[in-house]
Amino acid sequence: MAKPPRAAAPRFDLATLRDLAGAAAFGRGERYHRDGQAELIADDGSSLSARVTGSEVYRVALRGGGEDIDGTCSCPAFAQGDFCKHLVATALAANAAAAAGTAVPDRVGQMRAHLRGLGAERLAELLLDAAERDPALFDRLELAARLAGGDPRQIGAQSRALLQQALRTGRYVDYENTGGWAQGVLDALDQIETLIDNGHAALVLDLLDDAFAEIAEALQHVDDSDGGGSEILARAHGLHLAAATAARPDPVAFAADLFRLETTEEFGTFAGALASYGDLLGQAGRAAYRQLAEAAWAKLPRPAQRRSGASTFDNDSMARYRLFPILDQLAAGDGDLRRRIALRESTLVHPHEHLDLAKFCLSHGLESEALRRAEEAAWLFDDAAGDALPLFLAERYRAGGDADKALAVLWPGFERQPSLALFAALAQAGAGEGVAITDRAVALLEARLAALKGKPGFAGHGPAGLLIEILLRAQRQPDAWAAARRHGCADAVWLQLATASETTAPDDALAVYARLAEQQIGLVDKNGYREACRLLGRMRAVQAARGNAKAFSAHLDAMLLRHKAKRNFVAMLRETFVSA
User: Fold this and answer.
1) For the whole model, what pTM was predicted?
2) Which contiguous run of DSSP H or E holds residue 48?
3) Which of 103, 407, 438, 535 could form a disulfide bond with 517, CB atoms 3.0-4.6 angstroms apart?
């Protein structure tokens, strides 16, 4: 009796597909494949092309085979970084074709061969007929015709209209439609790029001079969650540089245009223009750029010093923000350190800017000046500088061998605004006094907590979490547990407490892990389920270390029963613990 033919191995490994897509997307991809929504259109052996019909028709390219799977899709889910259902449907369609021994028809190749045999006249008719139904194709063909005619005025007008049409948003472009809108703008920029190769670089430069403001205006009416606007701006900037390189405009006039773009373009696309366009500007252009920057800087009033949190960002502040890096880059190129310090000194407003100046001095070997700047800032902002300034000062004092000064600057900072960083610095500066420092910090925080007790919104946050972290740092776990029970704390602190106590207080740690795992399961999403499994893994490790693996098995069985309705979670639980 003849043996039945052996079934071909799946082209794409199903377990890998499930892992890449997740259970939900894999299931939707199965339905798409089952309903015939994935059309395979070309296959060269290493790359597979398909069209998948969902809310619209998406383009899919799938590469590799077996467990080595990669691909792209034009859908929004793939743009967010997900291995989408359309990729799954395409892979399953390819597997089905392999199982049936059916070759993927080269539909693109067939169309190409057919079109080549039609002749120029018939092709022109087909293309024009399609263009009448597709405005984007119509614009592309018209621009190509203008290029062939060579009339710069008509080419410029057509190119500007092409880009403006692509940038139109109507009232608003929502998330689902942003990808298509952004691609339309990128396609328009691709068409404009052809002008450079056809001898119209100056025209492109002139066109793009206005385009950045138009792009910024359009992006105000677009849900740009996926960053399509950044891609558009980067593409437009690349074209601007390419056009300038080809056109070689007058360096001084170009410096003025470039300076205006760097200091006014909303998204900072031209930041660092001196470096990007330096070869084009040359010595004359750079000199003109410097003159423009220094003149604009000289017109700005010196900012008024403000205390932390009391800032306003007005037009002068924006101008200062844009001009500073230009002047700093010029001074750095001159090797003028004093000019760079003076620039920073002229912008001092908030405590963090004083601290940045001190750090800048230190980074350039000016130790005594760094200390003097920090001490001045501490005097000016004795109660509004946060913990960064006392930490910097304490480190400088410690580096100079003066621990007493370090403690003297740290304790007031801790009393004003307690933090773990300040406590760690106190413990380091007061080496040998660890118990006394910890007791003093604990007493201060307990007093604060007593004053806060019963006030609305307290709920165990703020000082309570810091108190527990300090006790853990001092390896006083029993005191930390007592404080947590007395005051309450955030879940992240409970988790930290449990992790630190797996050996010394395993029952308490297990109780925390179990409670937090149930909270994560209650989120009813993939990330919550994964975190719950991670916490259960900690529980298994704790029970194994105690020689009590049966207790974990019993807990797991109870969870499988209690959450049996959550099929995705149960599947993840079984995969993680039962099949392991």
Assistant:
1) 0.66
2) strand 47-53
3) 535
